[in-house]
Specification:
The chain has helices at residues 13-42, 51-56, 58-64, 74-97, 213-216, 218-229, 240-274, 285-288, 309-322, 324-338, 386-405; strands at 3-10, 114-117, 124-131, 134-139, 143-148, 156-165, 168-176, 189-194, 198-202, 207-209, 277-281, 295-296, 304-305, 341-345, 374-376, 383-385. With 406 residues, it is α+β, with helices and mostly antiparallel strands.
């Protein structure tokens, strides 16, 4: 298996400055390569510049500017150029698919936060031998940086990335040949219904409360954003107060993100520990959280009819705050490592079907969903919690999937 490990770095003041310079110089390389591609295409000859052409120029670039480009790893600079090449490949793929193109843009120093080293030992070495009871990461041009290694690294380290989040620095290790850590079988299966009122409801009737991390910090976040908005949006030189206000907003968002991630890991771990098979709906989260299309008024050109955008906006915030996509990805990863089975099923009518396994009749009717929390079958009168009904139907569909696979 392939797994990623993320560890907090504890650099010194001098190392922190060197890490910032490393990001800035790689950002300059990225922007310069992007400018070269733009200029070449705008030329009357319509020249196409590819990754191989720009990678071949690195030796001359490093010799021309040894202070800024020559001090860093050659392979990390190649990874930066490859990152730009992947951005252009994605741009052309979207153009061919008829989607919004999204032409690659220049990166500001605040939006270029990662430098990747494609191979352990080439400009970056993971030193798992303790030095003064500390694991260290050796970076070319920076030195041996202390690492807060909170868990052991399994498998073989393939790539290492250095990432900045706010004022914190992290090392992200991608390892292959990671052995599975299978858990003992439990003989239990469960269906899961995701929601916004309850984060999830199981087919056993258990509800996991939705912590609503964004709503909890909404007032504090709104105050920080209002303070940031008092500064001019575009100034030639940002002031110290402006930078402090921006860091405050970023710090609050980072705290919400960490809280949500911790909650997802713990919830997924609990499901994996207690069940051999976990079934969930195959959700189109992008479609669920999509803003409604405008409704032009046919009688008044240039005017629009109400389309429920305000109500839909509240639902979209709840869906995105819950973070279903991140949770399902974590659940799948933990299940693979523990030897469990995760089955996504078709979500259509799971909350509108009278569940036969609970004594229902199997009738499908949207009117049976009386309220958000109540299900009452219009055919047989069966009544139960709507989320519980959905979770039971999800588990029943997973059983049909397993029977068909067998």
């Amino acid at each position: 298996m392939i797994r990623a490990y993320k560890f907090l770095l504890r650099p010194t003041v001098r190392q922190t400055a060197a890490l910032g310079e490393m990001l800035q110089d790689h950002c300059s390389l990225y922007n310069g390569a992007l400018q070269e591609r733009r200029d070449a295409w705008r030329h009357p000859s319509k020249t196409t510049v590819r990754y191989g052409d720009q990678s071949a120029q690195l030796k001359d670039i490093r010799a021309f500017d040894p202070e800024r480009q020559g001090r860093w790893s050659f392979s990390s600079q190649q990874a930066t150029l490859r990152r730009l090449d992947q951005a252009f490949a994605a741009f052309f793929r979207r153009v061919k698919a008829g989607q919004a193109p999204g032409y690659p843009r220049f990166k500001g120093t605040g939006h270029f936060d990662t430098v990747t080293f494609p191979k352990d030992g080439d400009g970056c070495r993971w030193d798992s031998t303790p030095h003064d009871a500390q694991t260290r990461l050796r970076l070319q041009g920076v030195g041996h940086v202390r690492v807060h290694q909170h868990r052991p690294v399994r498998g073989r380290v393939r790539t290492i990335s250095v990432k900045r989040e706010g004022r914190r620095w992290y090392a992200v290790l991608v390892c292959d040949q990671v052995p599975a850590q299978e858990l003992p079988p439990t003989g239990r299966s469960v269906g899961v219904d995701l929601g916004t009122v309850h984060f999830l409801t199981t087919s056993d009737g258990e509800h996991v409360a939705n912590p609503r991390f964004l709503d909890t910090m909404a007032e504090e976040l709104a105050a920080a954003q209002r303070h940031l908005a008092t500064f001019p949006r575009r100034t030639r030189q940002r002031t110290k107060r402006h930078r402090a206000a921006a860091r405050k907003v970023a710090k609050l968002h980072a705290k919400i993100r960490r809280q949500r991630l911790d909650f997802h890991h713990k919830t997924a771990r609990a499901l994996i520990a207690d069940h051999d098979v976990i079934a969930h709906e195959r959700l189109n989260i992008a479609g669920i959280s999509k803003a409604p299309a405008p409704r032009p008024d046919p009688e008044t050109p240039g005017s629009f009819l109400p389309n429920g955008a305000a109500a839909k906006g509240g639902l979209n915030r709840g869906v995105l705050d819950a973070g279903w996509g991140q949770f399902l990805a974590i659940l799948a990863d933990k299940a693979e490592s523990a030897g469990r089975l995760v089955i996504p099923v078709d979500p259509r009518n799971t909350s509108r079907t009278c569940p036969p396994s609970l004594g229902g009749c199997g009738h499908v009717d949207g009117k049976s969903r009386v309220t958000q929390a109540t299900f009452q079958c219009t055919a047989c009168g069966f009544t139960a919690n709507a989320d519980h009904v959905g979770a039971v139907n999800v588990l029943d569909r997973a059983g049909l999937v397993l029977c068909a696979a067998a």
